[in-house]
Amino acid sequence: MTPKTFRIKNFGCQMNVYDGERMAELLGDQGMNAAADGEDADLVVLNTCHIREKAAEKAYSDVGRLRREDGSKPLIALAGCVAQAEGAEAKRRSPMIDLVVGPQAYHRLPEMVAEASRGARPVDTDMPAAAKFDALPARRRAAPSAFLTVQEGCDKFCTYCVVPYTRGAEISRPWPDIVAEAHLLVEAGAREIVLLGQNVNAWADGDRGLAELIRALARIDGLERIRYTTSHPSDMSDTLIAAHGEIDKLMPYLHLPVQSGSNRILKAMNRNHTTDTYLAIIEKVRAARPDIAISGDFITGFPGETEEDFEATLNIVDAVRYASAYSFKYSSRPGTPAATMEDHIATETMDERLRRLQARIGEHSLAFNRSKVGCETRVLVERKGRRPGQMIGRSPWLQSVHVETDAQPGAILDLTLVAAGPNSMTGAVRRRAAA
Ligand code: 5AD
Ligand code: SF4
User: Fold this and answer.
1) Same domain for 284 and 173?
2) Count of structural domains, the chain
3) Do 198 and 293 lie in a common domain?
């Protein structure tokens, strides 16, 4: 039977959120409806992530949990990076899975769902160089802050990372497609666009790079804010750095992972930068845009990491004074070079280092947030808060801001930041800046 309702469960990164939205639109075009909260769906798409910790096992146990009390089950699609990594093996490991679709094959989802409802168990994990994007439908609804994938895949081959294997080689979407989609998003209600890519700052179309693209998008009326994520230090060009000081709509926030503060570990990670070259980039970015909020990613317990290496990581956290940062325990990914390196670190050591690292990052986040108290700024309202009359929005520096207001999502408020917490700010409205 052809499904009438669907649910998409997203795990992992923002690119999966974007892909999930596109799959929803694709299924919607086939006349299917998203299942309401709490309602049983005829089709469940598990949009999985493979980056850390027993990802495949987790996906299979999520599949198992989809069996209903009466023993029946929805049609189950395994999508995302676990689908890419497991391929046809997924069908052998779980008889409940009806179809397996990799991140480059989403445009084929409706036809695969039709095949699956006739009892076939299709698998498509091809990675064609031609992007899937052309075949995906236009955007009709957009959140105040909308994602737009401009680049996918990675050629950097950091030794711990599966992305080059699950998402494939770097590809950039063509300039005209991105500009057209940005216009559609703004018409559909977006006031901020977040350009996404595993290596977004490697985006290029001919001799035009991300800075030129941002400059063009900034000319779209009604689009108020632009962000991009995630960037690799090697692709942080001088033009892109300069853009931070030149384009008002480009928000003062940069996510630039460093991963470790030890040059020995950075080399073993195949990061292609040292702490000095990284810090030089941060210095240039701050010269272009002094108030910029810097964010990053860290891994603790990479094979061979000594206490001294780890202390070097704490030192770079102090040197950069991150406004926020994500940190993870090293997770051995089968098939990556690091998985077969010597001196894997004991879990307890990783846990202990992660706690110290997060405490240090937390000190800097709080200091950053406190430095903004008293600041008059603008906040883009995104959603309702927990309390009645409370809304949550984002400051230019990507802080969550709680504010009492009757303004709706999409409004931009002129407000004063009046209090700082470790993870959010409180704002008081001065006036409504724009409807
Ligand atoms: N183990 C732990 N963290 C990892 N990341 C990527 N691969 C691994 C791994 N094998 C982290 C990196 C990257 C972020 C998206 O996930 O910090 O920047
Ligand atoms: Fe993975 Fe490194 Fe590529 Fe980032 S740059 S996706 S960490 S291989």
Assistant:
1) yes
2) 3
3) yes
Dihedral sign computed on CA atoms, order 236, 134, 146, 20 = negative
Among the bound ligands, the one closest to the CA of 231: 2
Say if residue 171 is in the same domain as residue 140: yes
Q: Are residues 78 and 149 in the same domain?
A: no
Residue corresponding to tokens 């069908």 = 91
The answer to pTM > 0.85 is yes
Task: Ligand 2, residue 154: give the atom nearest the CA.
Answer: 3
Token pair of 424 as six digits: 């959010």
Task: Choose the final residue of a domain: 99, 124, 149.
Answer: 124
Specify the amino acid at residue 408: Q
Backbone angles phi, psi at 106, to 5 degrees: -60, -30
How confident is the chain (435 residues) per 10-residue block, as mean pLDDT?
Answer: 92 89 92 91 95 83 93 95 91 95 92 94 81 66 92 95 90 95 95 96 97 98 97 97 98 98 98 97 98 97 98 98 96 94 96 98 98 98 94 98 96 97 95 55
Q: Is 278 in the pocket of ligand 1 (CB under 6 A)?
A: no
**Ligand 2 atom with minimal separation from the 167 CA:** 6
Going by CA atoms, what residue is nearest to atom 12 of ligand 1?
297
Q: Is 323 helix (H, G, I), strand (E, B) or coil?
A: coil
The DSSP string of 189-238 is T-SEEEEE-TTGGG-EETTEEHHHHHHHHTTSTT--EEEEE---GGG--H
Query: Residue 394: enclosing H or E segment and its boundaries?
Result: strand 390-394
| Distance from the alpha carbon of residue 156 to the mean position of ligand 1, in angstroms | 13
The region, left, alpha or beta by phi > 0 then psi within -120 to 50, assigned to residue 260 is beta
How many Å is the maximal CA-CA distance in the chain?
Answer: 63
Strands 171-172 and 151-152: antiparallel
